[in-house]
Amino acid sequence: MAGIIGKTISTTYDPKARKDMPAYNGKILHVDLTRGEMAVEEPPEHFYRAYIGGRGFILHYLLSTLPAGVDPLSPENVLVFAPGVLSGTILPGTGRHAGGARN
């Protein structure tokens, strides 16, 4: 699913449909501010098991999308916000998230 920034994108969330990953929605939103576009990625379950949680997601996207030697202030740099492993569960104090970029 893709769209233009400023437009509403509606998607349904059924927690019963993703019993294999109760803490995750199973969707990752990519926003390109330069082109004004959005895209939704739906990685398979093994992605979540390989890169457990926010810091792992950040590491994956920084290493897989940034070219070597990219300037930290250039439009090619990415800024990643990712949920913690237990975000979205009923446990208290687990609403943690992480943010990362090349600096």
Task: Describe this protein's structure.
The model has no long low-confidence stretch (mean pLDDT 77). The protein has a 3-stranded antiparallel β-sheet, with no helix packed on it. It has a single domain (2-101), classed as Aldehyde ferredoxin oxidoreductase, N-terminal domain (Aldehyde Ferredoxin Oxidoreductase,  A, domain 1), CATH 3.60.9.10. It has helices spanning 45-50, 53-65, and strands at 2-4, 28-32, 37-41, 79-83, 97-101. With 103 residues, the chain is of the alpha+beta class. It is 18% helix and 22% strand.
Task: Describe the protein's topology.
Blueprint: E1 2-4, E2 28-32, E3 37-41, H1 45-50, H2 53-65, E4 79-83, E5 97-101
Antiparallel strand pairs: 1-3, 2-3, 4-5
* First-last Cα distance: 30 Å
DSSP helix count?
2
Helicity range of the residues? 10-25%
Walk across the major sheet and give the strand order.
Answer: 1-3-2
**How big a fraction of the residues is strand?**
15-25%
Shape: globular
Name the CATH superfamily classification.
Aldehyde ferredoxin oxidoreductase, N-terminal domain
Largest sheet: 3 strands, antiparallel
**Secondary structure: number of strands:** 5
Query: Which CATH first-tier class would you pick?
Result: Alpha Beta
Quickly give the structural class. alpha+beta
For the residues shown, what is the average pLDDT?
A: 77
Q: How would you describe this structure in keywords?
A:
103 residues, alpha+beta, Aldehyde Ferredoxin Oxidoreductase,  A, domain 1, two-stranded antiparallel ribbon
Q: Summed up, what is this model?
A:
This protein has 103 residues and is α+β, with helices and mostly antiparallel strands. The protein has helices at residues 45-50, 53-65; strands at 2-4, 28-32, 37-41, 79-83, 97-101.
